[in-house]
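Quiz preparation item.
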């Protein structure tokens, strides 16, 4: 069986969160979606479970951090710099916040951070591994 990851996130407005993640390119898996939770699919192995606060509290007694806190930054790969930029634009247009941290451009890696409506931080990034290897080889030769 292929290993998968399910990232669980508490959300205040499930419908708004579903719309937000769909705008970023995630798709909803109705098999694991009801009025208390939604499964948003990024790839065959990466899923995000959006859980209402009541549903979240059935899994843990730990407090839900405020939207201004950063507990984790979840990085997801994109196929192009344009896709990274489009995700940030979609975040801003659908209740989230674009560029919550400074943009980073190393030539071979480009990333921008966005936050969903509940403050969960995502790093949309594009990496060109061939360019990274070439840069490393050039710095060794110099």
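Solution:
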């Amino acid at each position: 069986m292929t290993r998968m990851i399910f990232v669980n996130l508490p959300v205040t407005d499930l419908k708004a969160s579903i719309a937000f993640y769909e705008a970023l390119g995630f798709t909803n898996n109705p098999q694991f979606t009801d009025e208390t939770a939604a499964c948003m699919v990024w790839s065959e192995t990466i899923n995000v479970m959006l859980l209402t606060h009541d549903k979240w509290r059935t899994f843990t007694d730990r407090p839900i951090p405020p939207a201004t806190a950063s507990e984790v930054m979840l990085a997801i790969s994109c196929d192009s710099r344009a896709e990274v930029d489009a995700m940030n634009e979609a975040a801003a247009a659908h209740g989230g916040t674009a560029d919550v941290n400074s943009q980073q451009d190393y030539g071979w890696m480009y990333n921008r951070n966005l936050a969903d409506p509940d403050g969960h931080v995502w790093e949309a990034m594009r990496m060109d591994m061939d360019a990274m290897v070439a840069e490393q080889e050039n710095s060794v030769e110099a």
